[in-house]
Design brief:
30% of the residues lie in helices and 34% in strands. The strands form two sheets. It has a seven-stranded mixed sheet. The chain has a four-stranded antiparallel sheet with strand order 6-7-8-9.
């Protein structure tokens, strides 16, 4: 993740949960996978704990890392109100060292897309592999890059939804610019109050990854066995609007 993007995450850590609610069905899926793992779980880019805290509450032995100290502060505050004591720490997914191995490593909600170069992507995947026990699983989900959607939405400001933050209603709009030669997405969310004043501008940079490209990255990182699905219920990947869910075994 680039430095300027990290700064942006720190700045809107307190309202992150109101703007980015994840992908439908992901929490239920990761809870099921964690229960099946029957061991230690590590969440990469755990953020404010949207996935980690419910899993911890359900008895999963889960730890987490994130690059944003302020996001982790929010996570700890939420955990305190839930009576939980999570083991989370600030670290970069490319080079962290937990000094232990896990039965399951999860990378939910496009977290891997924040790694922009192929070199860093391979380095990151190798680091995930290093932290897996033999026979352990790595699960990653991210969107399928759709040419149709890119052409339709490039540069267009679209209305997304209404969010309630500390009792105040905001209208959220999103504007996305695609850079095909770099495979980058520069997305900005705008929060506007009832008077029409834009109060928050939340930028996000992502690298989009194609199916065959990711398979090559996995091979380069030393993985040999994986399955990719078109959703969180084991659907076949057939449509460009589907979410790619990768289950990779060491």
């Amino acid at each position: 993740m680039k430095g300027e993007t990290m700064k942006d995450y720190n700045e809107f850590a307190e309202i992150y949960d109101h703007v980015y609610i994840g992908t439908k069905g992901d929490l239920k899926f990761y809870l099921m996978q964690a229960k099946k793992a029957r061991g230690n779980v590590l969440e990469i880019a755990c953020g404010t704990g949207r996935i980690l805290l419910p899993l911890l509450k359900n008895g999963i032995n889960i730890e987490g890392i994130d690059l944003s100290a302020k996001m982790l502060d929010v996570l700890r505050k939420k955990a305190k109100t839930m009576g939980l004591e999570p083991n989370v720490w600030k670290a970069n997914m490319q080079n962290f060292n937990a000094n232990k191995k896990y039965d399951l490593v999860i990378v939910p909600y496009r977290a891997f897309n924040h790694v922009e170069s192929s070199e860093d992507q391979i380095k990151t995947l190798k680091n995930f592999k290093k932290h897996l026990k033999k026979g352990g699983k790595l699960i990653i989900n991210f969107f399928y890059p759709s040419f149709t959607i890119m052409a339709k939405r490039n540069g267009v400001k679209t209305k997304r939804d209404t969010v309630l933050i500390k009792g105040v209603k905001y209208f959220r709009q999103e504007q996305i610019y695609y850079e095909p030669m770099k495979q980058l997405i520069r997305a900005t969310s705008f929060l506007t109050d009832a008077k029409g004043h834009t109060c928050k501008v939340l930028p996000m940079h992502l690298c989009y990854i194609y199916k065959k490209e990711f398979e090559l990255l996995l091979r380069a990182a030393g993985f040999k066995t994986w399955n990719v699905y078109g959703g969180f219920n084991g659907e076949s990947l057939k449509d460009e609007k589907q979410e790619m869910v990768w289950i990779i075994r060491k």
